[in-house]
Amino acid sequence: MSLAARRSGIPVHVWAGVALVAIALGVLPFVAALAGQAWVRILNFAMIYTMLALGLNIVVGFAGLLDLGYIAFYAVGAYTYALLASPQFGIHLPFWVILPIGASIACLFGVLLGTPTLKLRGDYLAIVTLGFGEIIRIFLNNLNAPLNFTNGPQGINLIDPFRIGGFSLASTETFFGISFSGPQKYYYMLLLLTIAVIFVNLRLQNSRLGRAWEAIREDEIAAKAMGINTRNVKLLAFAMGASFGGIAGAVFSATQQFISPESFGLFESIIVLAMVVLGGMGNIPGVILGAVLLTLLPEVLRYTMEPLQMALFGRVVIDAETIRLLVFGVALVAIMLFRPAGLWPSAVRKRELEVAKEEAAA
Amino acid sequence: MSEHTLLSAEHIDKRFGGVQALSEVSFSIRDGEIYGLIGPNGAGKTSLFNVLTGIYIPDGGSFTFDGAPLNRLKPNEVAERGIARTFQNIRLFQNLSALENVMIGRHVRTHAGVFGAIFRDRTTLAEEAAITSRAYQLLDYVGIATRANDLAKHLAYGDQRRLEIARALATDPKLLALDEPAAGMNATETRALKGLLEDIRRDGTTILLIEHDMKLVMSVCDRVLVLDYGRKIAEGTAAAVQKDPKVIAAYLGGEVSLHVKAAG
């Protein structure tokens, strides 16, 4: 996007498009509710994963630092909220107070992970971050003795839902004759937060800082020689990425009202990384697409695999849970084979591929 | 050209294991000159560049730049002090556009942080506009303005070399250190490069130039330093250095023939 294009007035058809998308997003939870409240919850998860993936995209997509333990920051955010708004310690702070606390603590952990790994790249960084992610999970699992902080493997229950005064997002309420279920109300709050996260990410990418991250990804030595303080800029990437992970974690806690260390395993880290890579590393719309697809796809498969087999074979050959993961895996491999730069690569990547094609043709 | 010294090196030493890459190298570069650095392959020219720009830490000796010592600085701090460089094996940000490459060069002279990026206040917007216009200006200066939106890796070889110079100039250097800018260029491109180097010097930037193209070195450099096996073997005007028997021996393998004679 050139600067000139950004500054010029926005044409009418763009506004019309924005309005249409806004209406679609507005009625979406009611459409989903026709298929059951479970689908509204799935939409909510898609947004939580979008925030997570966008955070990881800063570290992996922009700065080019492979982080396999990213879920640890999600866990830190989730536990921060859980401990400050549950009967665990009898503390019940409001959501808007905890959100910045959760983001800051996750940010601190980001710096904590970033500092010792500054000189590592590629495979070595991946191994260390993987270890870091596991350390956090194991800590959460075992911090129930001698002093009980996290309630260990049982997790923390009865976490406060999001609330403003007496208005709770967890219960069903009626406004203007329309009944809003708990998940539907959460949907709107998550939508606002997700839009804010997307906005911040877009702004970061098109900035002096975003360019410095990309310079480090492309060639760290050249970046240094051009005067970029790579230490600070890399730490900032870890810190910003971690903060978004922390926000997503706090929201997850408030939505779910129950968390346990099980939700923060290596598999989750890999899924979030898959969203970033599959969608199109470094491209914000691509990463959003990746997050939404990878959240929805397994759920769609969960509900369609059994009826499909019944129709084809007259009985269930493989149970849904197993075949779901199989189809999911095949889909991932297929996407990477046919679209190696991701489903929605950045304009730059696309240009690259086009030129490569032209060169091949010539 | 003034007599004021911009950079002076005193007894620079650098070892890699048992190899003495640089040994007791001393020289000084005056403000506003084009200073050549030549020598056969493996003489230590690039090692000297890397020591100067903070990529290697010297084992001994010291640099004084613009009146203050330059010791143990990191590469980014060296760039901040006003030394910008290019690389022998071009190191552009390949998957970014030519314009973005130059904009990144402005990083060290600008200030916007996270809050500026997110809120885009008046100061940040003004800074961004200044970065963009300066980057366009520099692309024009080195003669590749029409390629601004092309990816760096899709530029022609000679243009990549020019882009590296534009990116280095974006850091507002007092000393521009070029590592074989004419390598791989044809005669026409080299002639254009010579013009560019003269323009840069005229506009007030001192140049340190590693180059194998002797015609270019001899025609553009005010003074030349010759390295061989990590030692300084000659320093002086291009004409004087050319006649130095030690230099001729280094380039034509004089020592080898002497050894052969002695053995025979």
Any overview of this molecule?
The complex is a heterodimer of chains A (362) and B (264). With 362 residues, chain A is mainly α. Chain A has two domains: 1-34, no CATH class; 35-361, ABC transporter involved in vitamin B12 uptake, BtuC, CATH 1.10.3470. Chain A has 14 helices and six strands. Chain A has helices at residues 3-7, 12-34, 37-62, 71-84, 95-114, 122-142, 182-205, 208-218, 220-225, 230-256, 266-280, 284-313, 320-338, 347-361; strands at 85-86, 91-92, 163-164, 167-168, 173-175, 178-180. Chain A has a two-stranded antiparallel ribbon with strand order 1-2. In chain A, helix 5 runs antiparallel to helix 10. Chain A is globular. Residues 1-7 of chain A have low confidence and may be disordered. Chain B has 264 residues and is an alpha/beta fold. Helix content of chain B is 42%, strand content 24%. The model of chain B is unreliable at 256-264 (pLDDT under 50). A six-stranded mixed β-sheet of chain B has the order 6-7-8-3-9-10, with helices on both faces. In chain B, strands 2-1-4-5 form a four-stranded antiparallel β-sheet, with helices on one face. In chain B, strand 7 (175-179), helix 7 and strand 8 form a beta-alpha-beta unit. In chain B, helix 3 (98-105) crosses helix 5 (122-142), helix 3 packs parallel to helix 6 (157-169) and helix 5 packs across helix 6. Chains A and B meet through helix 7, helix 8, helix 9, helix 10 and helix 14 of A and helix 2, helix 3, helix 4 and helix 5 of B.
Would you spell out the secondary-structure blueprint of this structure?
The complex is a heterodimer of chains A (362) and B (264).
Chain A: H1 3-7, H2 12-34, H3 37-62, H4 71-84, E1 85-86, E2 91-92, H5 95-114, H6 122-142, E3 163-164, E4 167-168, E5 173-175, E6 178-180, H7 182-205, H8 208-218, H9 220-225, H10 230-256, H11 266-280, H12 284-313, H13 320-338, H14 347-361
Antiparallel strand pairs in A: 1-2, 3-4, 5-6
Helix pairs in contact in A: 2-3, 2-7, 3-7, 3-10, 3-11, 3-12, 4-5, 4-6, 4-10, 5-10, 8-10, 11-12, 12-13
Chain B: E1 5-16, E2 19-30, E3 34-38, H1 45-52, E4 60-65, E5 68-69, H2 75-81, E6 83-85, H3 98-105, H4 114-119, H5 122-142, H6 157-169, E7 175-179, H7 187-202, E8 206-210, H8 214-220, E9 223-228, E10 231-237, H9 238-243, H10 245-252, H11 254-263
Parallel strand pairs in B: 3-8, 3-9, 6-7, 7-8
Antiparallel strand pairs in B: 1-2, 1-4, 4-5, 9-10
Helix pairs in contact in B: 3-5, 3-6, 5-6
